Structure formats: structure tokens, C-alpha cells
Amino acid sequence: MNRRNFILQSSLAGAAIVTPGWLLAAKAEGVLAGKRIGIIGLDTSHSLAFTKWFNRENADSETGGYKVVAAYPHGSLDIVSSTSRIVPNTEEMKKLGIVITSSIQELLQQVDVVCLETNDGRRHLEQALEVFKSGKTVFIDKPVTASYKDAIALYEAAEQFKVPVFSSSSLRYTANTKLVVKGEFGTVLGADTFSPATIEKTHPDLFWYGIHGVEMLYAVMGTGCRSVYRSYTPDADLVIGEWADGRIGTFRGTRKGKADFGGTAFCEKANVQLGPFTGYVPLLEEVVKFFQSGIPPVAASETLELIAFMEAADRSRKKGKRITLAAG
Predict the structure, then answer these.
(1) Is residue 293, in this structure, part of any structural domain at all?
(2) What CATH number does residue 16 fall under?
(3) SS3 assignment for the chain
(4) Do 97 and 178 share a domain, yes or no?
(5) Which pLDDT value is given to residue 265?
(6) Which listed residue, of 79, 156, 235, 250, carries a Cα 20 to 30 Å from 209's Cα?
């Protein structure tokens, strides 16, 4: 028995659970070679949801044969809404037959690709660096980092180690949003998007949840925003972006009333409704393609500008004036 299979079986036995049939078959036939996913961070519901999708029976035609086999639980350190999820999520992952590792390095010895799911964007740079050094392709859940400075450092490190990186919110891949991006309705002349914008004191305001609506905005508008102005009240935000070609894109963040996701793309041929959120599957399908090809579906330049947009919105609130983007 080789060391990897010994570790896998010992960990499962220690958790007092039965190895799922698909995992036994995969080990016996070597199906998992190159297809093993490791998850970093069990402090979010995404980790469980993603694992259940990848590890469904008879799902290889959709998942490309990729399966989650191991997870490292940590994770946020000081955000109570996140840290409180680690223990119950870890127990649920064990029930699914996932090996729980004691470090990222131990995880990396047992997997081929990585989903960095840690809910705290402040930890993404340090955790991603460990993955980069292993040379393994990595998907980083939103936000890619909790600052523009860290985002620059992360992408520079990915380039240094020649590791493919992809980061996105699932809201980028709603049905109509994808049609607009494909050009089905002609050139996008402007867009308004909205999403909840719950504020977490450890992150710049829009980084924690408003990023979902900002992702939709950037999906249809593309890069080229040159300045941002934000109007803030305790219940809502309105962020107005001016693109260099004269287009205007806005994001409304809500903290009162019904929590929902959507917007309007103003196109040459039609005004198209964006949203609603319909689940993680469209994003995970893009993750599978990314793991297979090593080609990020969202360019680093776009993710960096999106981060700069949100950071500029934060500065606009504090200074009460329009802010030029750091990336523009």
C-alpha cells in the first residue's frame, strides 16, 4: 500500500465512517490521478455545497471526474460568523468521506488541484502562497484578497510560480449575464446591478458581500472604469462608476428589505434583466473547465480592477468625493 492510500484509509478509519463506494472504485482504478481536489477553509457553506456537487454519484460527465478528497479546515481566525462553522462543517465533510488534514502542506501531498474557500480574504495571500509553491492550479473564492495591495502581490506570486489562478463570485455566471457577455444583445452601453452588501468590520465595506453585485457589473461592463463615487447610508449604498469610454455602471448595495441579486444591462438591442441567483452550478462548471485547461475564464487584470473599484468606493465614502481607480 502506498503512502497516500495509507493516509487516506487511516484518516477515514479514525473518523469511524465507511469509505464511499465511488472513492473505493476510484482508488482501485486510478481514476483520481490528476482529478483530486483539496479544499482549504471549512468556515463557509461553499465548501460543503461544492463538495456535494463534485462528489455526486454518476456526475463525471458534468464534473470532468474531479472529486474532493481532502480538506484543511482553517479558515477564518477572528470572524465569529465564520469560525463558528468550522467544527460542524468539518464533521459533515467527514461524513462525506473527506480526509481532514492538519495543515495545508499535508493537504497538498494528497491532491492535484485546490479550491481556496477560506471566508476571510485577509488570509488568502498567505494560504495561496503555499499552494503556488506546490505548482498546483487553484480556484480562489471571492474576494480574491481583502485589499488591492494583497491582490497585486497574489497575482505577481502566481506569475512567479507559473500557477493558473481564477477567482470569481457565482453571480458572474447567471443565465442572462452570460448571454450579455456573449454579445447576444449587442454592445453593452451601461449597467445597473444590485445585491446585499452586509458589512464585516474586518474587510473594506464591499469586499464582504457587495462583491456579488460588483462581479455582475464587471461581467457585463468589462474593464476600463476610471473613477468611482459612492453614496452611503446605514441601509444602502449607491456606487457610480464612470468608464473611460463614457459609459456609466452603477451598483446598489442593500442592507434592509429583501436580500436579492440582479440588475439591468442596457444593450444596443435590448435592456436585459440580470440575475437572479440560481445556485453554484454555473460557477462550478467554469471551475471544472479551468482545472482541465489551466486557462482562467476571468483575466487577472479584470479581477484586479474589480478589487480597485471596491477599494475606491471605500475611500469615496470616507472622503466624500469621487476617487480615481488605482488600476485605471
Answers:
(1) yes
(2) 3.40.50
(3) CCHHHHHHHHHHHHCCCCCCHHHHHHHHHCCCCCCEEEEECCCCHHHHHHHHHHCCCCCHHHHCCCEEEEEECCCCCCCHHHHHHHHHHHHHHHHCCCEECCCHHHHHCCCCEEEECCCCHHHHHHHHHHHHHHCCCEEEECCCCCCHHHHHHHHHHHHHHCCCEEEECHHHHCHHHHHHHHCCCCCEEEEEEEEECCCCCCCCHHHHCCHHHHHHHHHHHCCCEEEEEEEEECCEEEEEEEECCCCEEEEEEECCCCCCCEEEEEECCCEEEECCCCCCHHHHHHHHHHHHHCCCCCCHHHHHHHHHHHHHHHHHHHHCCCEECCCC
(4) no
(5) 98
(6) 156
